[in-house]
Amino acid sequence: MARISPQSVEEVKAAADMVAVVSGRTQLRKAGARWVGRCPFHEERTPSFSVNPVDKLFHCFGCGKGGDLISFVEETENVDFAGAIEWLADRFRVSLTYEEASPQAERARQRRERLLALLEQAAAFYERHLWDAESGAAARDYLAGRGFGEAVCREFRLGLAPGGRTLVAKAHAKGFSSEELLAAGLANRRGNDYFSGRLLFPLADARGRVVGFQARKLRDDDPLAAKYVNSPESELFRKRDLLYGLHLARGAIAKSGRAVIVEGNPDVIGVRQAGFEPVVAAMGTALTEAQLKALARLARRLVLCFDGDAAGEAATQRGMELAAARGFELAVVALPPGVDPADAADRFEELLTGAEPYAIYRVRTAIEVAPDRNAAYRAAKEVLDRLPESPEREEAWRLANDRLDMTIQVRAAVPSTRAAVTPRLLSASERLERDALAGCLAHRSLLPVLGELGPDHFDVPLHRRACAHLLEPGEPGADLVALLAELDARADAEGIDAETTEQLLLRLRERRLRRELETAEDDRLPDLQQALARVRTAFRELA
To answer: In this structure, are 260 and 395 located in the same domain?
Structure first.
């Protein structure tokens, strides 16, 4: 795939407003030259999230997360570097240019762009047919009967497929080929429209680009028996990678730290219409690794809201186990038979208050469906053995013991992978190095003094890299970007002025000299002692 030119990358970075981007995830207030707010990456009551709008850096003193404008978009929008640049370019209206690539790579990029454009135009065509065509009346009546208003349906871009060769003819007229229609999943091999007479739910990727459709049956005489039919799997559409509605719910999920997962697309629409926004659907009952990876960037708490039958299916339970193994704080709402979230949208929050921690839910249901006491013991033990250590696991273990009136001997639990929000405590030596670098980052006039010391005066490898970067700027890696963001925030928060920075650099020099004195040959001792004396004199002059 063609590479975005470095000039375009710099133009995007210059044009993008850091405060505007971050404000889409958390509310910020101005504090001097910086902006502060609650961290969008973990729950907190006291704001500890700091944004530098000039250098476009962010750092949270609560959880330690930090980086620059690009890494913020990568984290919150679940995209890679190129995706972040393209997302920002769309947001701030910057035209991108791409470097020369191999003819094959350039053809692949152009093909992908054409398929996305075709799918976008198809979605717009289906929308118009639903709302403007006389033949869309029955579908509009169906939506009204389900209680879905036009505004929310338009927000999700619902449409109607007329069928025959209507879409194919329109696409041909606009210059798209039969092969492109087939590759986009919009036509079948006979050259007819892939979808016919069905209500269409456009399926979007993390950036809101249409990559496929889900089609609902509306007529009894529909030749396809299945109630729902998806676009065929293709180079753009992979059902296992998508969560319905995530591009619309992303901000609400990040702000609340919680995502609610329901079974179907209509459930998402109905619940969102009722005012509850952090909700998505897995387009089926089983969660996948790709879907969980997308959610992990936004939230650590998941609530699975399924009907009682679906929640007991093996595929659903495998998805739950994947989520638990990834360290999510997981809860389950098993709805009564015949009730789905869309039908109960006006009391959806009330339903969520009855959510049961995953560990307790799994153990309880394993016991309840077991044919006898011995089978219940084995089933409960199997569930408990797979769970990571947590208070919920302990509570589930006690529940099983009480229900079975026996003590279950479980394996030692694997450590929880749940992300901690407490930053690692630094040693005094690491703190000295980090504060010295923070001061030099804030007071660039002292970089020549840092240059006299050099990277060898730092013990931590990442600090050595930061020193080298400050002296000779290059393209920093993600870990170095995060450190530079922390240094920037720390210098401001702790008021590290130029004089303090000089003292910190002197202390680094003193530390190096003391170490050399411990191992030096006799003939070097006088020179090292004189150098140490000069450092001490400099300390007195600064005092």
So the answer is: yes
pLDDT in tens, 33-64: 899 999 988 878 889 999 999 999 999 998 88
Together in a domain, 88 and 142: no
In DSSP terms, 281 is beta-bridged to 244, 262
CA proximity to 195, closest of 113, 268, 139: 139
Task: Work out the number of other CB atoms within 10 angstroms of the CB of residue 114.
Answer: 16
- Are residue 485 and residue 339 in the same domain, yes or no? no
- Secondary structure (3-state) at 193: strand
Statement to judge: residues 139 and 201 lie in one domain: yes
Same domain assignment for residues 277 and 300: yes
Residues contacting residue 69 through CB under 8 Å, at least 6 positions apart: 13, 16, 18, 21, 56, 57, 88
- The domain in which residue 80 lies consists of 6-92
What ranges in 156-204 are assigned the alpha helix state H? Answer: 166-173, 178-183
| Alpha-carbon gap, residue 223 to 215, rounded angstroms | 13
The whole-angstrom separation of Cα 497 and Cα 82 is 37
- pLDDT 10s digits, 201-254: 999 987 789 999 999 999 888 888 899 999 999 989 999 989 999 989 987 887
Say which residue, 537 or 447, is predicted with more confidence. 447
Q: What's the rounded mean pLDDT across residues 80-97?
A: 90
The reply to whether 394 and 478 lie within a common domain is: no
Question: Which DSSP letter does residue 49 get?
Answer: E
End of a domain among 92, 121, 149? 92
- Estimate the crossing angle of helix 69-77 against helix 246-256, to 10 degrees: 110
Judge if 278 and 347 occupy the same domain.
yes
